[in-house]
Amino acid sequence: MKNRRAFIKNSLGLAAGLAVAKVGQAGTFLGDAPVSAFQFVQEQLAYAYNALEPAIDAQTMQIHYERHYGTYVKNANEAITAENVQVAHAAAIFKEIDKYSAKLRNNAGGAYNHAYFWKTLRAPKADNKPTGTLAAAIDKTFGSFDKFKEEFTKAATLQFGSGWAWLVLDSGKLKVGGTPNQDNPLMKGVALQGRPLLGLDVWEHAYYLKYQNKRPDYVAGFWSVVNWDEVQKQFSAK
Ligand code: MN
Fold it and tell me: In this structure, are residues 62 and 49 in contact, taking their beta carbons and an 8 Å threshold?
């Protein structure tokens, strides 16, 4: 009997450990592995804080990753627990975002958007641009890569106050637009709908230390650090 209890205890512990490991895996952004109580994890950066210089400076990256992003993850998980949210993945929260509190909306959005943002950045590259099927789709939709950059820059600079600029795929079509606060195009009721391919954080905390109020200069620097291989991967994903 004692052994049996110990066995049950161990297997429960093991199961809980596995569930955590699942959520912690990269690629859970849109959720592949159902778990009974979804929690965000603070996703690891694939590069050092200074890797994106000169476009994004090390101090901004460190504060942004550790404090801002860390707080979104912590607060999102608090709200998920408090509101007894039972979903398998983040996308399920966004699909019914109107059911939840402002705390959950803002922080789940923050946790997801930042994780996605980190993933689509890399060390600067000269002549950094998309290739392959994504490049062709961008040319077809916007006229050229330069025209696309203009559209995206407009979305990023015209977004009043805090928010995000996005390139999304909506029913097979590429679209550019902005969302306020920590909203994203997966959220029910948001004007820009679609699957995120590329997102740019235009909150002042993302650029103020280096660029002060010059958001257009930050957006110009951003083009050198976009991880187009990752964006292509998201574009090709079913
Ligand atoms: Mn941010």
Answer: yes
Give residue 67 CA to ligand 1 midpoint distance, Å: 10
Cβ pair 34, 186 in contact under 8 A = no
Q: What is the phi/psi pair of residue 174, to 5°?
A: -80, 140
CA–centroid distance, 121 to ligand 1, in Å, is: 14
For the chain, give the longest Cα–Cα distance.
Answer: 72
For residue 155, give the nearest of 140, 175, 171 by alpha carbon.
Answer: 175
Q: Distance from the CA of 125 to the center of ligand 1, in angstroms?
A: 23
The number of helices, as runs of H, and strands, as runs of E, in the chain is: 10, 3
Measured CA to CA, the distance from residue 201 to residue 163 in angstroms comes to: 6
206 Cα: distance to centroid of ligand 1 (angstroms): 5
What does residue 37 show for φ and ψ, rounded to 5 degrees? -130, 100
Distance between Cα 69 and ligand 1 center (Å): 7
3-state DSSP call for residue 198? Answer: strand
Q: What is the pTM of this model?
A: 0.85
Per-residue pLDDT tens for 60-84?
999 999 999 999 999 999 999 999 9
Hey, what amino acid is at 36? S
